[in-house]
Amino acid sequence: MPIHVDHIAAADPAAPTPDDIRRIWSAERRLGAGTTIVYLNRIQQFRTYCALHGLVEREELTLERVGRFIDWYAKRRGLDPLSLRLSSTALLSLSRVYHRLGLAPPDWRPPRPVKALLTPLLAQYAAYLTQHRGNPEVTVHKKLGHIGRLQDHLIQAGKDWHSMQLTDVDAFLVGCAARYSRSHVSDLACTVRCFSRFLHWSGQSPVDISEAVIAPVQRRHERPRRSLSWDDVKRLLMAVDRSSPSGLRDYAILLMMSTYGFGAGEIIRLQFQDIDWDSGTLSVLRPKTGVAFTLPLLPPVAKALAEYLRHGRPADTPTRHLFVQMKMPLEPFVASSAIRHILMKHAKIAGIDAPFLGSHVLRHSHAARQIDLGARPQVVSDLLGHRDPESVSAYVRIATASLREI
Are 326 and 30 in contact (CB under 8 A)? Predict the structure, then answer.
């Protein structure tokens, strides 16, 4: 039976009232009226649970303890606990209210354990990649992951870096070839070659086996980049419902990706200081190459960003990142998969059924569009932040595909 939300009461007199909760949620511009009512009902159920068990509400606002409440309520009502996951979101929002009132609830999740530090050798290799190879952080992280897999393989074989032989590397790559694509195995082999040279250079290995490491043949630009037609890009943008905060955010993201050729990496790293409203410019760092440059803040993009910042982005969000999640905790995106999800969601609404809707598809579409409009490949390469001008030839192949229709 629905609960009249204005009758919510808590045993703790310092607990927020329904009016407090409504006021703070309204200021955050996150929840609609219907969701607010549902969340307040879940809070009432939680307060009943705390009262029956003599618990202090504020102290129970952790993921683990809320899980106990959900199990109790599910058993009492004969429900599947999985059907009550919304209760966890509602109570996380209540925890946010406590924070805003200065009542300091416990951490929702326990602090993450500190990641194990790199071994001295891998720390030295990471520094070598950064200082001598010019690799950006994202590439260093990827290569360390590759070397970690090789290290696991060696440990299973009873070997270490000093005793590693070419046969060990061959066995590792053959095993990877059975599980991964040819391009990924080729990437792994490239990392192993580089690391093998480093081992010999640093005195960790008596022999340099790098030149003998064999990788699958990966012909350059074997396949053109996959892109959407420009009509599909326009349909995608028109399909975004901009009447909600998340819609305003998604539209701004997709518009910037299609207008500037941004990938997910650029989007999730954008911060307030990257926008110069007075000069009408946008500062961008390409995470893959480390190339930094300035772009004009075009009027449609400026308008979309202004609408999002005024009416979409939650107020008092504790980060300077431009784009944030619309659920608690209000954090910036941390992976490209979130951007891919946004793109796929609106592509489905637009009726775009393409098998390659990755987070880079709008980057590829933008590049192909520029080539079609007559932009010189070198200019497109510079705008995309490529270090190698030949990289743009893949986009040229996309554009020339349209000639076959003539």
Answer: yes
